[in-house]
Design goal:
Layout (H helix, E strand, L loop, with lengths): L1 H11 L3 E7 L13 H13 L6 E10 L4 E8 L6 H8 L8 H7 L1 H22 L4 E5 L6 E8 L2
Parallel strand pairs: 1-2
Antiparallel strand pairs: 2-3, 3-5, 4-5
Helix pairs in contact: 2-5
């Protein structure tokens, strides 16, 4: 993932900033393959790339020893997500628009993000059943925040 972000920083230059806040304990926990990478890619491609002045992607990871969970947050201060599209994604509805709509609203980009989120959700469900939590929000200040909690194994 760091390699991917380094390549994107080279491509976007000063338009892409990356901030890491990783608890060293997280490095010993097991997070399923191809879970964090698509979230980071979505933050860059659908959040920052569409924002003229660019922005920042933040990756925060913590271990909670009391609940025996790993908490990962991928956030950006990019263009954010339309509330209606977010509601459809959270409900599992991948039909969030067609190409014609995407020219005006960016919905097509979000639709592709929906495929990635669906793949992540299916992978997490197969591994953890209902013992994980994935939430997406769009703060009033802008951008998108994805919070993921998985049990420590």
């Amino acid at each position: 993932m760091r390699t991917y972000l380094s390549l994107e920083q080279a491509r976007f230059g000063d338009r892409l900033q990356v901030r890491y806040d990783i608890d060293p304990q997280v490095l010993t926990s097991r997070v399923p393959v191809l879970t964090i990478q698509p979230l980071v890619e979505n933050a860059v491609k659908h959040g920052i790339a569409d924002k003229k002045e660019g922005g920042t992607v933040r990756l925060r990871a913590r271990v909670d020893p009391l609940t025996r969970t790993t908490h990962i947050r991928v956030s950006d201060d990019g263009v954010g997500m339309d509330a209606e599209v977010l509601a459809k994604l959270l409900s599992g509805d991948q039909d969030v628009g067609d190409h014609e709509d995407s020219v005006l609203t960016g919905v097509d980009a979000v639709g592709h993000a929906g495929v990635g989120l669906t793949n992540i959700t299916e992978r997490l469900e197969s591994l953890f059943g209902d013992r994980y939590d994935l939430s997406i929000s769009t703060p009033r200040s802008g951008g998108t925040v994805v919070d993921l909690r998985v049990p420590m194994t």
